[in-house]
Amino acid sequence: MTIQIECPHCHAQNRLDPARINDAPNCGACHAPLLTGAPLAATKDSLPQLLKHSKLPVVIDFWAPWCGPCQQFGPTFAAAAKDMAGKMLFVKVDTEAEPEMGQQFRVRSIPTLLVIEGNAELERVSGAMSAGQFKAWLMQFI
Fold this sequence. Notes:
Helices cover about 25% and strands about 25% of the residues. By secondary structure, it is of the alpha/beta class. It has one domain: 3-Layer(aba) Sandwich (Glutaredoxin). This is Thioredoxin TrxC.
């Protein structure tokens, strides 16, 4: 099983063995680092692998393209991902494209944010937060 990761530099699609997620993988095309702090887009196939292999807490943003609060919160999520790179892994799940993921994680409204470490859900919150609120919420998991 491999996961697809888009290079944040050249936008090439890279297949990655999820077991290598903690090894600072580089792009096969441009050789730049794949994990620069940009949130990873997850699917029903890749998310279980990311959760299984990540040694870091995983922060998941369940969102949809038509959701206004989701769109407003997106830059806050991306900024936190960049600021906390190496401390947490940030993942986005598009519930429009992956509706079964929302069902599997019992997401009732969006945006919904989850923090998962190992196989355990540590906490969840629904609704967009300010940058300060989001960072304060995340700090309890580091």
